[in-house]
């Protein structure tokens, strides 16, 4: 078992072992927020025309 754990720990490159990666759900939430903001910027005129 200890050999399997050692192999799992060494999957990342040596320079990236000390980097703490954020959880995947935070990345997904951030991606959705960025998509919404970009769409609001590009389609601002269309959205405002629907509200009038």
Characterization of the model:
- By secondary structure, the chain is mainly alpha-helical.
- 67% of the residues lie in helices and 0% in strands.
- The protein contains 3 helices and no strands.
- The longest helix has 19 residues, at 24-42.
- The chain is rod-shaped.
- The N and C termini lie far apart (66 Å).
- 0% of the residues are buried.
- The model has no long low-confidence stretch (mean pLDDT 80).
Which tags fit this structure?
52 residues, 3 helices, mainly alpha, rod-shaped
Task: Summarize, please.
About 65% of the residues lie in helices and about 0% in strands. With about 50 residues, it is mainly alpha-helical.
Derived from helix and strand composition plus strand pairing, the structural class reads mainly alpha
On the 0 to 100 scale, the average pLDDT is 80
> Could you give a short account of the major beta sheet?
none
Shape verdict: rod-shaped
Gyration radius, rounded? 21 Å
Name the helix and strand elements from N-terminus to C-terminus, one letter apiece: HHH
